[in-house]
């Protein structure tokens, strides 16, 4: 069975700094999708970034980028130039073509 | 473009009452998912539909829970009878399969007293 592990329950960063959130997963599949979702205090689940396993190039969306290491089954999220609005829970998720499997989340606090 | 719509946003009910949560997926999406989020168990997939057909309901906790999708633009999740341990945030999400991205509604916070 596929599993997703986020080993950092909480992280903090100062505004304008860079922070990296870790995620590892376990699967025997070769083709799959990985996502990071953000859940601010409003509780809305917001898709931040996606990565296809068959693509070697790391995905980037503005200040958000990933470091995808397929052999190591690692999928970390880097947030550059952190902003107060980035304060939220961040969930890593694995898609094996039909269902999303979520990690337990990392609570990120951005300080002024 | 309207996102996934859920109603109600908040529901408070007494134990034993029937609760119905509603979801309207994004137009054109062909898969719909119901999740439950609690502090203890995190995000759990309850059931998902593809082209209005239930595909996997292995996450439905027990017979008190049922879900329907009578057409491509509407789904319900019903709990009867409700219990205090059902208190949680329930999310609906939809997806266009070839894109592989799920978009979530705002959630329904259910409190059973």
Helical percent range of chain A?
A: under 10%
What's the alpha carbon Rg of chain B, rounded to whole Å? 13 Å
Q: What share of the residues of chain A does DSSP label as strand, in percent?
A: over 45%
The assigned structural class of chain A equals mainly beta
Shape of chain A: globular
Strands of chain B, count: 11
Average pLDDT taken over every residue of chain A: 94
Q: Helix- and strand-based class of chain B?
A: mainly beta
List segments of chain B where confidence is low: pLDDT < 50 over at least 5 consecutive residues. none
What radius of gyration of chain A results from the CA coordinates? 13 Å
| Greatest interface by residues involved | A-B, 19 and 19 residues
Q: How many strands, which pairing sense, and closed or not: the largest β-sheet of chain A?
A: 6 strands, mixed
Give helix and strand order of chain B, one letter per element, not per position. EEEEEEEEEEE
Cα(first) to Cα(last) distance of chain B is 37 Å
Give the oligomer, counting copies of the same chain as homo and different chains as hetero: heterodimer
Mean pLDDT of chain B: 95
Strand content of chain B: over 45%
Q: What is the count of helical runs of chain B?
A: 0
- How many DSSP helices of chain A? 0
Query: Largest beta sheet of chain B, briefly?
Result: 7 strands, mixed
Uncertain stretches of chain A: none
């Amino acid at each position: 069975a596929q599993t997703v592990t986020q080993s950092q329950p909480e992280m903090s960063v100062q505004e304008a700094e860079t922070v990296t959130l870790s995620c590892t997963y376990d699967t025997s599949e070769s083709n799959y999708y990985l996502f990071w979702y953000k859940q601010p205090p409003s509780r809305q689940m917001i898709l931040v970034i996606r990565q296809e396993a068959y693509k070697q190039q790391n995905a980037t969306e503005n200040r958000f980028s990933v470091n995808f290491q397929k052999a190591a089954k690692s999928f970390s999220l880097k947030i550059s130039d952190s902003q107060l609005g980035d304060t939220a829970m961040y969930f890593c998720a694995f898609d094996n073509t039909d269902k999303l499997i979520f990690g337990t989340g990392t609570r990120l606090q951005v300080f002024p | 473009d309207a996102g996934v719509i859920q109603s109600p946003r908040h529901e408070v009910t007494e134990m034993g009452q029937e609760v119905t949560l509603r979801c309207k997926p994004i137009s054109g999406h062909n898969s719909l998912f119901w999740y439950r989020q609690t502090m203890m168990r995190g995000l759990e997939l309850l059931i998902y539909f593809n082209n209005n057909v239930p595909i996997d309901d292995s996450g439905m906790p027990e017979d008190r829970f049922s879900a329907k999708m009578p057409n491509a633009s509407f789904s319900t999740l019903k709990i009867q009878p409700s219990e205090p341990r059902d208190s949680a945030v329930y999310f609906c999400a939809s997806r266009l399969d070839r894109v592989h991205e799920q978009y979530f509604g705002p959630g329904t916070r259910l409190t059973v007293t």
